[in-house]
Design a protein that fits this description.
mainly alpha
Length: 222
């Protein structure tokens, strides 16, 4: 009973984090005050998430370190580092909540770090979600493998096209240090685009993890 309640709490936290992550990416459309408030909420949920999955995290560092484990550990460590950098860089560029700290002199550096953290964090967060698709699709892959592969390919292609069209790679590589927001479609269209882009990284995460498991099985057979 306790494990079921804990599992439900984990799902609720993960769903809220995903929703807040999308709102965070739309800061110009949603409003800067809301961006700061939801950013704090996201950071709190991020901590709660790690408390709830602490047993899973401990298990990652135990036993034989396979390629699969190494991937998960790497992504988790990078995500933790990015989240800490995001919170730290948010302080000097805050226009509402943290202005009392008087760190505006560091706003230029903070903005650059925050931009990089936002887009790389978004990518890694969805790759992390993709790692868990393996469990969700396990049964479907046995009964409807062809359909699952086609859906994953469609999500990947749609995500890649949107990723390139929106110029996300330019922000990730600092080719463009100023984010352009197309306000014509409104918040709903913006969120849809980022759901599709998130799907791209989730499929990448799922595929990379699946390949690492396949490699491990081949090595075991030998």
């Amino acid at each position: 009973m306790k494990s079921n309640s804990k599992r439900k709490a984990q799902i609720a936290v993960d769903v809220l984090m995903t929703a807040l992550l999308l709102l965070q990416m739309s800061y110009s459309l949603a409003g800067e005050l809301l961006h700061e408030i939801t950013g704090i909420a996201f950071f709190v949920l991020f901590i709660v998430h790690h408390i709830l999955v602490r047993n899973y995290t401990k298990a990652l560092f135990k036993g034989k370190h396979s390629t699969e484990k190494a991937l998960k550990i790497t992504v988790d460590i990078l995500l933790l580092a990015i989240m800490l950098l995001m919170m730290a860089s948010a302080l000097p560029i805050s226009k509402y909540v943290f202005t009392f700290l008087g760190l505006s002199s560091l706003s230029s550096l903070g903005r650059t770090v925050h931009l990089l953290g936002a887009y790389w964090g978004f990518a890694l967060m969805n790759i992390h979600i993709g790692f868990h698709l393996d469990i969700m699709l396990k049964k479907s892959m046995k009964t409807k493998k062809t359909v699952c592969i086609l859906v994953l390919c469609a999500v990947f292609i749609a995500g890649l096209i949107t990723f390139i069209h929106e110029g996300i790679y330019k922000y990730m590589l600092l080719i463009n240090q100023f984010v352009f927001f197309d306000t014509k479609g409104g918040l709903a269209l913006f969120l849809l685009k980022y759901i599709i882009i998130g799907g791209l990284f989730a499929v990448i995460g799922y595929t990379v993890l699946s390949l690492s498991k396949g490699k491990r099985k081949n090595e075991t057979i030998r």
